[in-house]
């Protein structure tokens, strides 16, 4: 790979990235006009590829394609322009929607999830067009606006445009690398289901003195329900929850044990007095290989003397192996409704997004190409094969509908406060990402790790979603 592009200094790109971050494209709450503004910003960046905003039943997607390399492989680049809510503004050191340089990082909502990583690919493609007059392979783009709310309308869109989106491989600009000290590729991600449990007592809030001791308290009842979901060892106590979770083999345990990882450093970085989780598994085994059921929020009443008439808990589960999302929700529902909770009404609201776990075979030719590309940028460093403990809803959809595996190739890093206040991106990762994406595209187009259709489809057949 003798040729290489000339890229501008990363800091010179920050004002343009700042324009993108400044658009508050929070898919959970933003107005349609705001989401369209973000989509149009991306589409303008894809002018060389007929970039355009295309309607869905929800927020629009951005499409583009450059197909000027006949006979060469075709990839589909996936990412998203929507972002998470800011959380408490008081916890931010600056305006969440103003890109702020803070030493060797830039801060702002979405800068690492997923606007910065998408921006890197856009700038790479533009550099190829400007300096070489084209791309080394055929590239399609699909940038959606609902990933942070579970991509509820992406499935219908992809199914109705499957012929147009067909590719040999999907490369996701979303999906953070494991940690900043070493290059990594993720070969799996966890699935996701979520639900709300609402407990209702009286028709209105009641004075805690006048009525206390005469009616059931929904908060007490909800606490009983939540406490029943796990046993004292941290294991989920819901019958049937673990159906489809594979046994952790001795070989896999040995692989994980060989990954440098210090429990105490992890604990200190998180600011917790001690680590906790399912007994019988190491911290990294729990993080990468075990499913979870987490209570992500509880709301009811307040600091005033009433018995609240309702209490609500928000739950989410991260899934592994072949756990079936619908079965998991049904198991939780059966568990909750099977409890003897008197004096209240219990209602469960199941969220519609149901994402199974995903895996790409570590032997897939694209993984070899990506590892070599990372070696160009990080010479002499081993590339860690990791697992994304989070969820990327589009992966199993692309495999089912397009027959293509998804490879994660993001230059976000998992410690950069994704979804939290003071989200940041290391400035050096912009330049590193540009060089690695360039190397990847050249390797996939030509050479030992090129995307020949036979090799890719064979690998896809052997590495089905799990």
Automatic annotation (TrEMBL):
Occurrences of domain Peptidase M20 dimerisation (ranges): 188-336
Protein name per the record: M20/M25/M40 family metallo-hydrolase
Pfam families: M20_dimer (PF07687), Peptidase_M20 (PF01546)
TM annotation in the entry: none
Coiled coil: none
Keyword tags: Hydrolase, Metal-binding, Protease
UniProt keyword Hydrolase present: yes
Keyword match ATP-binding: no
């Amino acid at each position: 790979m003798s040729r290489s592009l000339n890229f501008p200094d990363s800091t010179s790109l920050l004002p343009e990235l700042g324009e993108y971050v400044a658009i508050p494209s929070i898919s959970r709450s933003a107005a349609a006009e705001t989401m369209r503004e973000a989509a149009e910003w991306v589409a303008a960046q894809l002018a060389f590829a007929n970039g355009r905003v295309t309607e869905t039943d929800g927020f629009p997607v951005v499409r583009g394609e450059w197909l000027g390399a006949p006979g060469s492989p075709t990839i589909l680049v996936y990412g998203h322009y929507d972002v998470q809510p800011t959380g408490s503004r008081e916890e931010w050191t600056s305006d969440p929607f103003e890109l702020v340089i803070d030493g060797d990082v830039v801060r702002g909502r979405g800068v690492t999830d997923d606007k910065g990583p998408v921006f890197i690919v856009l700038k790479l493609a533009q550099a190829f067009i400007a300096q070489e007059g084209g791309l080394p392979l055929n590239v399609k783009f699909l940038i959606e606006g609902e990933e942070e709310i579970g991509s509820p309308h992406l499935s219908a869109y992809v199914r109705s445009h499957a012929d147009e989106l067909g590719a040999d491989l999907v490369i996701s600009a979303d999906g953070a690398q494991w940690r900043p000290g070493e290059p990594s590729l993720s070969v799996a991600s966890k699935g996701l289901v979520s639900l709300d449990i609402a407990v209702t007592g009286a028709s209105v809030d009641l004075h805690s003195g006048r009525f206390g001791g005469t009616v059931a308290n929904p908060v007490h009842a909800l606490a009983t329900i939540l406490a029943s979901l796990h046993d004292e060892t941290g294991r989920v106590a819901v019958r049937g929850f673990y159906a489809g979770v594979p046994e952790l083999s001795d070989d896999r345990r040995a692989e994980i044990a060989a990954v440098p990882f210090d429990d105490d450093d992890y604990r200190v970085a998180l600011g917790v007095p001690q680590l906790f989780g399912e007994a019988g598994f190491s911290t990294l085994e729990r993080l990468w290989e075990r499913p979870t059921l987490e209570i992500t929020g509880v709301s009811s009443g307040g600091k005033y003397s009433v018995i609240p008439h309702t209490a609500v808990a928000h739950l989410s589960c991260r899934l592994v192996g072949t756990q079936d999302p619908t079965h998991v929700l049904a198991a939780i529902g059966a568990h909750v409704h099977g409890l003897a909770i008197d004096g209240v009404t219990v209602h469960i609201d199941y969220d519609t997004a149901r994402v199974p776990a995903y895996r790409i075979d570590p032997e897939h030719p694209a993984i070899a190409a990506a590892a070599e590309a990372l070696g160009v940028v990080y010479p002499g460093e081993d590339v860690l094969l990791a697992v994304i403990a989070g969820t990327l809803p589009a992966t199993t959809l692309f495999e089912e509908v397009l027959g293509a595996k998804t490879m994660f190739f993001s230059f976000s890093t998992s410690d950069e406060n994704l979804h939290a206040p003071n989200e940041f991106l290391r400035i050096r990762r912009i330049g590193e990402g540009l060089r690695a994406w360039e190397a990847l595209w050249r390797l996939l187009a030509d050479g030992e790790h090129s995307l020949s259709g036979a090799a890719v489809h064979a690998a896809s057949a052997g590495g089905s979603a799990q």
